[in-house]
Fold this sequence. Notes:
Layout: H1 2-10, H2 12-20, E1 25-27, E2 33-34, E3 42-43, E4 48-49, H3 51-64, E5 68-73, E6 79-83, H4 84-100, E7 108-112, H5 117-129, E8 132-135, H6 142-152, E9 156-160, E10 162-165, E11 168-171, H7 173-180, E12 190-194, E13 207-209, H8 210-216, E14 226-227, E15 231-237, E16 245-250, H9 251-265, E17 274-277, H10 284-296, E18 300-304, H11 315-323, E19 327-330, H12 332-341, E20 356-360, H13 366-376, E21 382-386, E22 420-423, H14 432-435, E23 439-444, E24 454-455, H15 459-467, E25 474-482, E26 488-493, E27 497-500, E28 503-506, H16 507-515, E29 520-530, E30 534-543, H17 554-568, E31 577-581, H18 594-601, H19 616-624
Parallel strand pairs: 5-18, 7-8, 7-9, 8-15, 9-12, 12-13, 17-18, 17-19, 19-20, 20-21, 30-31
Antiparallel strand pairs: 1-4, 2-3, 4-14, 5-6, 10-11, 15-16, 16-24, 22-23, 23-25, 25-26, 27-28, 29-30
Helix pairs in contact: 1-2, 3-4, 3-5, 3-10, 4-5, 4-8, 6-7, 9-10, 12-13
The structure holds 5'-O-[(S)-butoxy(hydroxy)phosphoryl]adenosine.
Amino acid sequence: MANLYSQAEADRLAFWSAQAHKLDWHKPFTQTLDWSQAPVAKWFADGEINACFNALDRHVLAGHGDRVALLFEGEPGDTKTYTYSDLLVETKRAANALLNLGINAGDRVAIYMPMIPETVIAILACARIGAVHSVVFGGFSADSLRSRIDDAQAKLVITADGGYRKGKAHALKEAVDHALSAENCPTIENVLVVKRTGTEVVWNPKDIWWHEALAEASAEHVAVGFDAEHPLFILYTSGTTGKPKGILHTTGGYLTGASYTHKTVFDLKPETDVYWCTADVGWITGHTYVIYGPLANGATQVIYEGTPDSPTFERWWQIIEKYKVSIFYTAPTAIRTFMKLGKEIIEGKDLSSLRILGSVGEPINPEAWQWYHDVIGNSRCEIVDTWWQTETGSIMISPVPGAFKTKPGSAQRALPGIKVGIVDENGRAVEVSTAGSVAGYLTIDEPWPSMLRGVWGDHDRFVETYWSKFTGKYFAGDGARFDEDGDIWLLGRIDDVIKVSGHRLSTAEIESALVEHHWVAEAAVVGAKDEITEQAVVAFVILRQDEIADAPDEESIGKILRAWVTEKIGAIARPRQIMVVTELPKTRSGKIMRRLLRDVAEGRPVGDVTTLADSSVMTAINDKLSLGAND
Length: 631
Ligand code: WT7
């Protein structure tokens, strides 16, 4: 591994070219990086490649067709195993079904699905024919789905009658119907529906059953190569404004980053390892470390449909024991939840197959790291704390197993091939030796293959958000510091993005959802520290006196507004608490001072109020807030 660091150090582009050459190219590339149109990079631009061919065909052609690709565990306990050959046959059928529906290369396909094998197949089928998938997390509301379909001008939605979550069938098709109702989403020509739960669904003229479409489709399909820079997918993520951004990833560079990091960080041995990443495919972690990374590397992996508590909190550990999982990748929120429950949950479970444990999505506090290491890993496993983002496409900062000693709570070093830095407000580098623990802004200083290529339909926003703060560097939006050894400690977001259970939410988006309610005149949302979920959504609202003359008491108002946010965005954005106030703290220029609201939400004495236009506002808010959580 030390080798990788020195190779990348010696010649970064040659290093990346070597990583890309591990993939199968329909037409080899001759140029590694074209940065002449920065910040839009072109990697391996004259090459042609098919992402699905790399995920499936090449393993079958290499004689590994009988290797298990997916070990599916449904929440109710049903199971299904797919070898690489099985997955290839199904994906070819699905690709033909999409072609039969008139989907062409470059068309956008929205995927709104539970965690089932058909989701993997649908994604790979899109990639196979060059259609651009836009996966929308199944927990997002109909409204969120509609705005994503419209933004990407998708032609097709692939969904299911439902999925199992927390012991119940959770309706998905109904949300699609709602998103498409009243002639909304005019670009959608068809809806493909996988039958999963058997829940009765309303049938509309555009609807087609997945199993029928696949049964009619041929199982023969030859994958062709697409330009390396052909769009592979769009994935919407929250930013600092109300509107989610469609992050665009392209084929050759993304796949290079996904496969290289998956192999390196998890030390994957495809012949013997059983890998399990608990992320939903609705997030980038699911794209890179459930779909493209593991499959490009020929891994055997578990996918589980449901939640960790179904039917009890023992479920995950039973799955690890049952399938002899050796590499496990999850989020700190889950680890903290289990830590709170105590080590009894793993009592009697044989977790001795585990050898690498990964963490992602938010900073992992040293206590949770230690617990993960000692209790889950029985003090024998390597822990990899992986920092990256939807935009970076693949892991940027993480220990590499065996390369150096790990440190609880620090993601440590940029991976070989990645150059990161920490700068102060003026863009000056924060030096390791002098700094000790001076905090700054995390930047990525050189282009990398899996970097985002843009924000769908909004080039200016792409430049403005990521490339304007520090000249020539990618601004990540995170605070970070070096310790004396030069190891990196991530300090969380420094913008108005918050992380709740590892999910990324925009305070502005929740605020605009709240003010859409006719009772709400103004809203301010903050992320308050939470023991389990890292941050929790706390909203302060000013009500419209004229509208709420006959409104119920504050507690019911809180309940109704929380349900409203669920309907507008999804349950993940539902505020933990809603506080009704008569004024919000603002500066003289009218900017809401969230820092003060965070103090209130976290139960701290309120900080410096001297820049407020009216400093009595905070006293009024504080006096009123003897209120508890709405739950
Ligand atoms: C934000 C990106 C990366 C896949 C899942 C989240 C935070 C992510 C870590 C980590 C500290 C982390 C950052 C980042 N984050 N991993 N290991 N340590 N913070 O992707 O939804 O795009 O969120 O998640 O704040 O900016 P995402």
